[in-house]
Amino acid sequence: MFEKIFTKIANKVAYAAGLPLTFLGCCIVVLAWAVSGPVFGFSDTWQLVINTGTTIITFLMVFLIQNTQNRDGAAIQAKLDELIRVSTGHNHFIGIEHLTETEVEEIRKKCEQAAKRHDVRAKAKG
Fold first, then answer.
1. Helices 20-35 and 44-86 meet at what angle, rounded to 10?
2. 57 contacts: CB under 8 Å, gap ≥ 6
3. Which candidate, 1, 11, 26, 9, places its Cα nearest to that of 70?
4. Contact 40, 46 (CB under 8 A)
5. I want to staple 68 with a disulfide (CB 3.0 to 4.6 A). Which of 3, 14, 30, 40 is the partner?
6. Cα separation of 50 and 53, whole Å?
């Protein structure tokens, strides 16, 4: 239950955060804060307001955006795995996102080498 609600909120917030109107709103808030500086004598409290506000928003957004990215990445991997499974591709590529960076790099290099060999053979034929 909580996970579904969190996912729904995270999706909406991540979407809203990427809108041009949201960026414009943030610019207006910062501009209003800057313009109010002389009114408050550029006091410590005046500075603390923007520092605290931006820190809290940034802290929360990191988790929301990471959650969205994790789900997007997992969904893409599942789709790619299904494409590999139903095609003539090698099934041993399914699940490689769980390997270490070094293991994935080794597989990537082998794929690049195979592609180069294929290109050389195709040029020789053509």
1. 170
2. none
3. 11
4. yes
5. 14
6. 5
The stretch 56-62 carries a mean pLDDT of 95
pLDDT classification of 32: cutoffs 50, 70, 90: very high
The CA distance from 55 to 66, in Å, is 17
Residue bearing tokens 């080794």: 106
d(CA 14, CA 69): 10
What b/e sequence results for 26-44 when a residue is b if at least 16 CB atoms lie within 10 Å of its CB, and e otherwise? Answer: eeeeeeebeeeeeeeeeee
In contact, 83 and 89? CB cutoff 8 Å: yes
Task: Flag whether pLDDT at 125 surpasses 90.
Answer: no
CB count in 10 Å sphere of residue 4: 8
Q: Which two tokens stand for residue 94?
A: 């399914």
End-to-end CA distance of the chain: 60
pLDDT bracket for residue 97 (50, 70, 90): confident
